[in-house]
Amino acid sequence: MLRLPSLTSLAYFEVAARTRSFAAAAKELNVTPAAISHQIKALEEYLGVELFVRHHRRVSLTPAAREALPDLREGFQALEQAVEKIRSHGDERLIVTVCAEPLFATKWIVPRLHRFYAICPDAEVRLQASLQTVDRARDSAFGAADLKRAGIDVSVRLGYGHYADIEPERLMGLTLVPMCAPALARNVTGAESLHTLPLLRDGTLDRFGEACGWKEWFRQQGSESGGLRELRFGNGLLAQEAALAGQGVLLGVPELHQAELTAGTLEQVSDRSLDCEQAYFVASAGPGEERPIAGQFREWLLGEVHQPA
Q: Which of 79-83, 230-234, 260-264 comes out lowest in average pLDDT?
């Protein structure tokens, strides 16, 4: 059998060739540009052919690289399909990997998981929490290749629902209302009284291109939004803990704090809400492309939106 170069160097070449940039390839593969350059150089030495012409801030393909690239892409696709076929016969056929932002994963998915296991008792849900599931731009470059690369079957994304080659399904909207600990709630007599209190900010919402927070809430109430004392936290879980400790008023999604609101450890202090343009979406390879267990989890997730926790 013909001796082939390493799959790593071929994969780095494919991404670099597609993006026409070692820096962009490094970002996509979560490595350093130096690692990309090293692998490409090793591949060129192995093949005895230059693959890229190096310019000041970019690279271009040589004729040899341009000719080989389509076949290489087709080869990787065939390899991925073969691996999936093998996996479908093993124990991993019942493993589904799911990713969502920390607050949603912890406060919405986890309390409901027992119901999924009730209908799929042999399944194993591997739940991950990451802020990478929050879209920074209205038109995201996120697509099916990103799911495969990260080994994610189902991603609950917070954003606008516009993706490269995925048709997401809307799970629930992003509606924010003020809430805080009972002791602090006694000091809230209306929208204006909130100006005098510390306001907790979930930094997750700062990742959006369009702002969605306290200033927008006050503006919607026709109130001045200057001079606010905002305490920013890196994610919704941290902001919730601060609210429970009585450190300020949180602008949160009631469905994600339902346990605390029901137990009385948090109280909603205004019925005036801020309806954001962003929402939670379920993204996967989709019917016909996803593994059966991933499809089952996706359908279950969409059905759960109508059920209490």
A: 79-83
- Domain closes at, from 53, 87, 121: 87
pLDDT, mean of residues 247-270: 96
CA–CA gap between residue 132 and residue 148 (Å, rounded): 15
The verdict on residue 1 lying in a domain is no
Q: Report residue 89: phi and psi, to 5°.
A: -100, -5
* Helix boundaries (H) for the chain: 7-19, 22-29, 33-47, 63-87, 102-104, 113-119, 144-150, 182-185, 214-220, 236-244, 258-263, 292-304
Q: Which of 279, 45, 38 is nearest to 171 (CA)?
A: 279
Provide the β-strand partners of residue 232: 201
The Cα 219–Cα 174 span in angstroms is: 17
Angle between helices 22-29 and 7-19 (to 10 degrees): 120
Model confidence, pTM? 0.73
Q: What is the tens place of the pLDDT at every residue in 11-30? A: 999 999 998 889 888 888 88
* CATH number of the domain bearing residue 156: 3.40.190.10
